[in-house]
Specification:
By secondary structure, this protein is an alpha+beta fold. Helices cover 53% and strands 16% of the residues. The chain has 14 helices and 17 strands. Strands 1, 3, 4, 7, 8, 9, 10, 11, 12, 16 and 17 form an eleven-stranded mixed β-sheet that branches. The protein has a two-stranded antiparallel sheet with strand order 2-15. Helix 11 (288-316) runs antiparallel to helix 13 (333-374), helix 11 runs parallel beside helix 14 (385-416) and helix 13 packs antiparallel against helix 14 (385-416). The chain is elongated.
Length: 422
């Protein structure tokens, strides 16, 4: 067996240029397959951990997906609001550890505005229980201050000290729909997280009431001097209603009990959803694209394996004399067949090792950059079971693909004897 391996290696080395291109093709296809599988798993994990450490999200009774979309992803509009009285009752529940109120509805140049409290920056977690960090500036301390996400800062060129004017509702600033009488000063920029927090503008909850003093039905009402005086006097008041609330429990085992308690409130119709379950439900819909991408990459690997078969088949005609000499030296047809099969397996293994090395080097070199640009954590500490499975599948396909030229060489060795037709 050792002699067969040695002969297969030397035979392949004599044709190293052409076979090297095949190995490179297989290495690149394996690199694509492994990298996409790694990205697919990490993107799914990151999506499922867009919010972590939050046990429940409470809001008006609506669809679970809709509630999560505007509470976590800040997309869409709430069908209704919940009263601060219900939030206060929720915070007094013995199983509740903390409550973070969220009020939405305003925008700035297409980016959502989220009114909340300091508790949001204290308790919000994403990914593997990672907290929000400031890249620049400080947290907001007054109703005319804001902290913005990394994407907002990058797209609009904002930095601490910038003044922004918010818009009532969605869309661009229009006459009569902006809060030009209440400009907001940016005091901090969050570090990039790769979550919806990058695209949000955070203002104090009290600012919501100050911004909408003198508004009714989405329009600003004319105000006289007295009204302006009242407006200045009530800027620190909390709103009577909010859009949703994030809830953390003292013990996660109580999540279903608190969920039932929220649904049974008679003061107003409320619901509580578990973020992890709802995120998985959303992924089952939007995650179809990953399967298509994986299928395309698998087809690339199949093409590379077929290329190996084609090159070996094409080289058989040039090697018929070589095979005839082996037969003259006493090699059996099965020996010739094994030689071709081992050559194909050898090339496949070299391509697989090259793909793994390229994948690990790229992962190590780009993981910090990917984390800083997109907030995606690429894991190097573990090898996915699916990556190992794909490696075995490609190795098996390479062996099967090499059997075709091996069988053909077996038949040629019988027919040619010592007089091969060239």
């Amino acid at each position: 067996m050792k002699g067969l391996w040695t002969l297969a290696w030397h035979s392949a080395w004599n044709r190293r240029f052409v076979l090297g291109l095949i190995c490179l093709s297989m290495a690149l296809s394996m690199f694509m397959l492994l990298s996409i599988e790694r990205l697919r798993a990490d993107v799914r994990s990151g999506f499922a951990q867009s919010v972590s450490g939050t046990d429940l999200i409470v809001g008006p009774r609506t669809g679970a997906v809709q509630l999560l979309m505007y509470a976590v992803f800040h997309m869409g509009q709430a069908s209704n609001n919940i009263s601060m009285a219900s939030v206060a009752a929720l915070s007094r529940h013995p199983a509740v550890d903390w409550v973070v109120p969220l009020s939405m509805g305003d925008t700035h140049r297409g980016f959502p505005v989220v009114a909340t409290t300091d508790a949001y920056f204290k308790h919000f977690r994403y990914g593997d229980q990672q907290p929000l960090r400031l890249a620049q500036g400080r947290h907001m301390q007054g109703d005319q201050q804001a902290v913005i996400g990394a994407e907002v800062a990058a797209r609009l060129g904002y930095a601490p000290g910038a003044s922004v004017v918010l818009t009532h509702g969605e869309g661009h600033i229009e006459a009569g729909h902006d809060h030009g009488d209440h400009p907001i000063t940016v005091v901090g920029v969050l570090a990039r997280t790769g979550t919806p927090a990058d695209r949000a503008i955070y203002i104090p909850l009290e600012a919501t009431e100050a911004l909408h003093q003198g508004w009714f039905g989405g329009m600003r009402l004319p105000m006289d001097g007295a009204s302006h005086h009242d407006h200045d006097h009530e800027v620190s008041a909390l709103p009577r209603e909010i859009s949703a609330a994030m809830v953390g429990l003292k013990n996660r085992a109580a999540v279903f009990a608190v969920q039932r308690w929220v649904a049974s409130q008679r003061a107003e119709p409320l619901m509580a959803v578990m973020p992890a379950l709802t995120l998985n439900e959303i992924w089952s819909v939007v995650g179809v694209g990953e399967q298509v991408l994986l299928m395309v990459t698998a087809l690339v690997s199949v093409v590379s394996v077929m290329g190996l078969t084609a090159v070996m088949m094409a080289g058989l005609h040039a090697r018929r004399r070589e095979l005839a000499i082996l037969r003259a030296l006493g090699a059996s047809p099965f020996y010739v067949m094994g030689l071709l099969a081992l050559e194909g397996l050898l090339l496949t293994c070299i391509g697989l090792m090259g793909g793994w090395c390229l994948h690990l080097v790229t992962l190590w070199g780009l993981r910090d950059w990917v984390q800083s640009q997109w907030g995606l954590s690429l894991m190097m500490s573990d090898v996915l079971a699916s990556q190992g499975l794909w490696t075995l599948v490609v190795c098996g396909c390479g062996l099967l693909a090499s059997l075709l030229p091996a069988v053909w060489a077996y038949r040629l060795s019988w027919h040619d004897g010592l007089s091969p037709r060239t």
